[in-house]
TrEMBL record:
Cofactor binding annotation: Binds 1 zinc ion per subunit.
Protein name as annotated: Protein farnesyltransferase subunit beta
Domain Prenyltransferase alpha-alpha toroid: 58-409
A GO MF term: zinc ion binding
Subunit structure: Heterodimer of FNTA and FNTB.
Provenance organism: Megalops atlanticus (Tarpon)
Catalyzed chemical reaction(s): L-cysteinyl-[protein] + (2E,6E)-farnesyl diphosphate = S-(2E,6E)-farnesyl-L-cysteinyl-[protein] + diphosphate
Keywords of this entry: Lipid metabolism, Metal-binding, Phosphoprotein, Prenyltransferase, Repeat, Transferase, Zinc
CDD domains the record matches: FTase (cd02893)
Cofactor: Zn(2+)
Annotated family: Belongs to the protein prenyltransferase subunit beta family.
Superkingdom as given in the UniProt entry: Eukaryota
Length: 440
């Protein structure tokens, strides 16, 4: 383990030279970028004035109080998330597991009962009781239940109906609708692949054509758009890459151009990530973008091992990027500035009263709390099991529990869910009319 006590990057003599240069051309976005950098500089200067020895601290206790209260009580401002209630369960439970804070059994049991009410009679989970099944809250509900990880939690999930629901939104081209009659984008492929793999309901046809469809979402930038032909975006890129990893088809993507795209999304001055080219830094991309690096590291490592076999080389060539083995891949760190990201999250994204946020000046919320902490966990932990290296900025108390880069729940909870559901057989694909009476 490496505790980082040396001077922070953002207080170093070269930091100011990393600020945005507009080449004397002012645009709407260049003005916004400068404003954000100024607000970050203000935060950093204030911190430096108050701390002789910079020691960024994770406000554990404050985050814990904020999160625990959110499980029972939400303010009026969350009214707009009435169709995302399983998400709130997941964001809070995952944040708590990252902080290594146990949830009382009675609270876990109440969450199970609530999520059971969100489960649709047609399978899958809705954003709230009585609403329509949707792939996003289905992903959130299954993740939340796997974090709880009890028999009671696993038993909430009706696997046969979940499979029926997935087939009801599957499209002939391999993509998935977010809900019946809804839109298609690459989030749905990830949500479907995530819940189906965790609960062991993948049939031979469920993901037919899906990897090819996801590969078409990768564009000239290197990242993935929501559907083929759209601008590359951090959230969609994570979803596409993680889905490919689950389906074992990550090599259908141009991994090196994806790598180049994502590393260029880490901001030189801020240290955090932007979601798209020419956009502003945002704390939630600490996971959506930085979370890609563990997936890419593993995929490139596997590809490097494969390409050492000469016969395989030509098959591993896609476009102009030839993969010739990745012996140069680090055994100690991901391919992004892990310290800079930790500095951004700890110094610029924490609300002193608990909860984390997008950027200075924004308010805290459970979504940003979950994804800032998830990104912080990625930046603190390299590798897994036998090859594990920690880089903790500040005191050791800042250490979070590692997160699984594919599912974004803790690795032991993934292993436990897989072990539980693999004892059960894969349900059968049923005709859509099953269970309903078809009158002429
Ligand atoms: Zn955000």
């Amino acid at each position: 383990m490496e505790e980082v006590l040396s001077t922070l990057r953002c207080f170093g003599e070269y930091h100011k030279s990393e600020s945005f240069k507009d080449d004397n051309v002012k645009t709407e976005t260049s003005v916004e970028q400068k404003k954000v950098e100024d607000s970050i500089q203000e935060v950093l200067s204030a911190y430096q004035q108050n701390h002789k020895l910079p020691q960024p601290t994770l406000l554990r206790e404050q985050h814990y109080v904020y999160l625990k209260r959110g499980l029972r009580y939400l303010s009026d401002s969350y009214e707009c998330l009435d169709a995302s209630r399983p998400w709130l369960c997941y964001w809070i439970l995952h944040s708590l597991e990252l902080l290594d804070e146990p949830v009382p059994a009675s609270v876990s049991s109440d969450v199970c009962a609530f999520l059971a009410r969100c489960q649709s009679p047609t399978g899958g989970f809705a954003g709230g009781p009585g609403q329509q099944a949707h792939l996003a809250p289905t992903y959130a509900a299954v993740n939340a239940l796997c974090i709880i990880g009890t028999e009671e939690a696993y038993n909430v999930i009706d696997r046969q109906k979940l499979l029926d629901f997935l087939y009801s939104v599957k499209q002939p081209d391999g993509s998935f609708l977010m809900h019946v009659g809804g839109e298609v984008d690459v989030r749905s492929a990830y949500c479907a692949a995530s819940v189906a793999s965790l609960t062991h309901i993948i049939t031979p046809t469920l993901f037919e054509e899906t990897p090819g469809w996801i590969a078409r979402c990768q564009n000239w930038e290197g990242g993935l758009g929501g559907v083929p032909g759209l601008e590359a975006h951090g959230g969609y890129t994570f979803c596409g890459m993680a889905a490919m990893v689950i389906l074992g088809k990550e090599h259908m993507l141009d991994l090196k151009s994806l790598l180049r795209w994502v590393v260029c999304r880490q901001m030189r001055f801020e240290g955090g990530f932007q979601g798209r080219c020419n956009k502003l830094v945002d704390g939630c991309y600490s996971f959506w973008q930085a979370g890609l690096l563990p997936l890419l590291h593993r995929a490139l490592q596997a590809e490097g091992a494969l390409s050492r076999e000469p016969a395989d080389l030509t098959a591993r060539t896609r476009g102009s990027a030839t993969v010739t083995g990745d012996s140069a891949l680090s055994q100690r760190s991901w391919m992004f500035e892990q310290r800079a990201l930790q500095e951004y999250i700890l110094l610029c994204c924490q609300n002193p009263a608990g909860g984390l946020l997008d950027k200075p000046g924004k308010s805290r919320d459970f979504y940003h709390t979950c994804y800032c902490l998830s990104g912080l966990a990625v930046a603190q932990h390299f590798g897994s099991r036998d090859l594990h290296h920690e880089l903790i900025l500040g005191k050791d108390e800042n250490r979070l529990v590692p997160t699984h880069p594919v599912y974004n729940i803790c690795p032991e909870k993934v292993a436990q869910a897989l072990k539980h559901f693999h004892q059960l057989s894969v349900p059968m694909q049923r005709e859509p009319a099953t269970g309903t009476l078809n009158l002429p």
